[in-house]
Specification:
Shape: globular
Distance between the termini: 42 Å
Radius of gyration: 20 Å
Structural class: alpha/beta
Order of helices and strands: EEHHHHHHHHHEHHEEEH
Helix content: 55-70%
Strand order of the largest sheet: 3-4-6-5
Number of helices: 12
């Protein structure tokens, strides 16, 4: 079985398939002979979605402005202030998105390895598993649960930026892609965040034009997702009496660009790859060894390859996230994307 490339914001840009030699090759995400929906419908949906993702950027700017204006003492006393979760450096933005991609691909590994029953697209299931591991973690990292929430928020922002980029260049919507549209992946993450703590994340309803009915549904959606992730771990987690699972080798190949060198070093410095796999091995006992490798793939993507049992994260994806972070910085300064 071959897994579709790309768990992160660029996941809906195209597809890959295995050639005769087993290598990954890009394919078009929408066959040309399949007609797209009528243009007026697409435009109407696009305008609504564009307003939503632009509101996300506005919400972030408003929260950060509030954080800067608050007295230091008030900031220290209000541990639930969501503004802190929206505050991140370009490096943190890139590393956070890479962390979500890693967890998304690990979800594919679990689904394959344990034959987890799912109803619906596997890519959507992997998104939900990755999101809930951040919002409702089985184990809290040393830096606290808010660090994982910040990963979720940076990832949602990555989806929003990817959608805005598609709109800016006039790219066709990949209706036949096996990932949801990036704007849908963005809204799913925002919905789960709000549903997990409506009081703390009320700003999302206020600034994202989220209908009240949808906000109420988000609470139920989070509750269902929480039940599902708990069932997943309770059913497939390694028992204390079980032997340790097969090891996961971690390998970093040489990065091709200065940006990817810098981001690789940041990933190594933060140690989230080792920490994630250590937790994964404690919770899920693999039947056979697997390998995580960061390498150059010529395309910004990530993938789980069951045939070779490799989880690959491409350095080009880190370069793409850094480009997004530069766009984000420009938006924060009150500008718009290049070319607008």
């Amino acid at each position: 079985m071959l897994r579709r490339a790309g768990g992160g914001p660029l996941g809906s840009q195209g597809q890959t398939r295995a050639g005769a030699d087993g290598t990954m090759r890009p394919t078009m995400s929408t066959p040309e002979r399949i007609a797209a929906p009528a243009r007026p419908t697409t435009l109407r949906r696009s305008v609504c979605a564009s307003r939503t993702v632009r509101s996300w950027g506005l919400a972030r700017v408003v929260l950060l402005a509030g954080l800067a204006a608050s007295p230091a003492g008030a900031q220290q006393n209000d541990a639930d202030d969501p503004a802190r979760l929206f505050e991140s450096t370009p490096e943190q933005f890139v590393v956070s998105n890479a962390q979500f991609v890693l967890m998304h691909e690990l979800a594919h590994l679990v689904i394959d390895e344990k034959r987890v029953p799912i109803l619906g697209p596997e890519e959507s299931a992997a998104d939900y598993i990755a999101a809930m591991m951040l919002i409702r973690p089985r184990a809290v990292p040393p830096e606290g649960s808010d660090a994982l929430l910040q990963v979720a928020i940076n990832t949602a922002e990555g989806f929003a930026l990817a959608w805005r980029r598609r709109e800016r260049i006039g790219a066709e919507l990949p209706y036949w892609d096996n990932h949801s549209l990036t704007v849908q992946r963005f809204s799913t993450l925002a919905c789960l965040l709000y549903g997990s703590n409506p009081k703390r994340f009320a700003i999302l309803v206020e600034r994202l034009d989220m209908p009240e009915a949808r906000a109420r549904a988000c609470v139920r959606e989070y509750e269902r997702a929480a039940y599902a992730i708990d069932w997943l771990f309770d059913t497939f987690a390694r028992k204390e009496t079980d032997p340790p699972g097969a090891p996961i080798e971690i390998r970093f190949e040489d990065p091709p660009t200065l940006t990817s060198v810098r981001m690789r070093d940041a990933i190594l410095r933060q140690g989230f790859v080792e920490r994630t796999f250590r937790f994964f091995n404690d919770v899920v006992a693999l039947d056979e060894p697997a390998t995580f490798v960061m390498r150059s793939c010529r395309l910004p993507q990530a993938m789980w390859l069951p045939e070779t049992r490799e989880l690959v994260l491409c350095y080009e994806l880190l370069d793409a996230y850094m480009a997004m972070s530069l766009e984000r910085s420009q938006l924060e300064r009150g500008g718009d994307e290049p070319g607008d």
